[in-house]
């Protein structure tokens, strides 16, 4: 997928390393170099080559992964680190020490989806995000439906989507989502929905899909891997996919629905 990216993998357990290499790394078509007999060779390699990221086993015989990470960062201060381990560690303390370089922890035995998440965090791979608005609102990540326990946080995401990257203020969100609630209560409900939405996005490794500011939110339009039916419909003259139903569970849908209905009427007349 990305031959411009170079990663190294350091693990003295050959079986685990081989599993990681052939099931994940080669499939993604990434440049790699792995070290299993002498992890210290990785330091010399990083001195001589441009390495973007290092997957390091924390517990190895000759040097532990934490010390190795410290040495690699001395050589290449911008190198990204993913720690791999079969043991429990104080993640909070490690994250604090390596906060400028640490990307992720991956625990053995390796799981394809978990490795994929680390690739996403490194920017090697991107999620495919799908918003379905014709009818009920649905949000899918890599074709998997995202289930929201908090229906208001789901509705807030739908509302953010309709603003198409423009700023959605807390005041506007409250007026649309909690129009009949007392203001102080509405503010608490808004903040609770924002918190739960952030949790859900973080759970799927897409925390920066929505930009959260003080008293406002907006969709991050830097994401290029978003597929949204109503965006496609409005921007494609040949798209006839609109069925007359738009975000049917939400009362604030009317202005955009009117716009969609108008386009549908024009397209129907042309047929």
Number of strands: 12
Provide a count of the helices. Answer: 10
Q: What is the straight-line distance between the termini?
A: 42 Å
User: Strand order, biggest sheet?
Assistant: 2-1-3-4-5
Q: Order of SSEs, N→C?
A: EHEHEHEHEHEEEHEHHEEEHH
Could you tell me the strand content as a percent range? 15-25%
The tally of domains stands at 2
Per CATH, the superfamily of the largest domain is: Winged helix-like DNA-binding domain superfamily/Winged helix DNA-binding domain
| Helical residue percent band | 40-55%
Query: Shape from CA axes?
Result: elongated
Q: List unreliable stretches of 5+ residues.
A: none
User: What's the CATH class of the largest domain, please?
Assistant: Mainly Alpha
Would you summarize the structure shown here?
By secondary structure, the chain is of the alpha/beta class.
Topology of this structure?
Layout: E1 2-10, H1 14-25, E2 30-35, H2 41-48, E3 53-57, H3 65-75, E4 80-85, H4 91-97, E5 102-107, H5 112-122, E6 129-132, E7 138-141, E8 144-145, H6 151-162, E9 168-169, H7 170-177, H8 183-203, E10 210-213, E11 216-219, E12 226-228, H9 229-235, H10 254-270
Parallel strand pairs: 1-2, 1-3, 3-4, 4-5, 6-12
Antiparallel strand pairs: 6-7, 7-8, 9-11, 10-11
Structure notes:
There is one protein chain. The protein is an alpha/beta fold and 271 residues long. The protein has 2 domains: 2-122, Rossmann fold, CATH 3.40.50; 129-265, Winged helix-like DNA-binding domain superfamily/Winged helix DNA-binding domain (Arc Repressor Mutant, subunit A, Orthogonal Bundle). It contains 10 helices and 12 strands. The chain has helices spanning 14-25, 41-48, 65-75, 91-97, 112-122, 151-162, 170-177, 183-203, 229-235, 254-270; strands at residues 2-10, 30-35, 53-57, 80-85, 102-107, 129-132, 138-141, 144-145, 168-169, 210-213, 216-219, 226-228. Strands 2-1-3-4-5 form a 5-stranded parallel sheet, with helices on both faces. The model has no long low-confidence stretch (mean pLDDT 88).
């Amino acid at each position: 997928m990305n031959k411009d990216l170079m990663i190294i993998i350091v693990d003295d357990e050959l079986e685990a390393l081989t599993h990681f290499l052939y099931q994940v790394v080669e499939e993604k078509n990434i440049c790699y170099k792995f070290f299993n007999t002498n992890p210290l060779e990785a330091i010399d390699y990083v001195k001589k080559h441009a390495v973007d990221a290092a997957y390091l086993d924390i517990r190895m015989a000759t040097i532990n992964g934490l010390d190795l990470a410290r040495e690699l960062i001395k050589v290449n201060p911008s190198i990204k680190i993913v720690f791999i381990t079969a043991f429990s560690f104080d993640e909070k303390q490690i994250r604090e020490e390596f906060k400028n370089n640490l990307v992720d922890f991956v625990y053995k035995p390796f799981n394809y989806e978990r490795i994929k998440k680390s690739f996403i965090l490194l920017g090697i791979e991107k999620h495919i995000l799908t918003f379905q608005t014709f009818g009920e609102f649905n949000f899918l990540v890599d074709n998997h439906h995202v289930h929201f326990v908090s229906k208001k946080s789901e509705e807030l995401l739908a509302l953010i989507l309709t603003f198409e990257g423009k700023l959605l203020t807390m005041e506007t969100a409250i007026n649309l989502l909690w129009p009949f609630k007392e203001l102080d209560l509405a503010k608490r409900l808004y903040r609770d929905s924002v918190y739960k939405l952030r949790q859900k996005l973080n759970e799927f490794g897409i925390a920066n899909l929505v930009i959260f500011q003080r008293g406002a939110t907006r969709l991050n339009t830097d994401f290029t891997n978003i597929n949204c039916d109503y965006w496609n419909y409005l921007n494609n003259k040949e798209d006839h996919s609109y069925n007359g139903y738009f975000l049917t569970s939400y009362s604030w849908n009317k202005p955009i629905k009117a716009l969609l209905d108008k386009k549908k009427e024009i397209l129907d007349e042309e047929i």
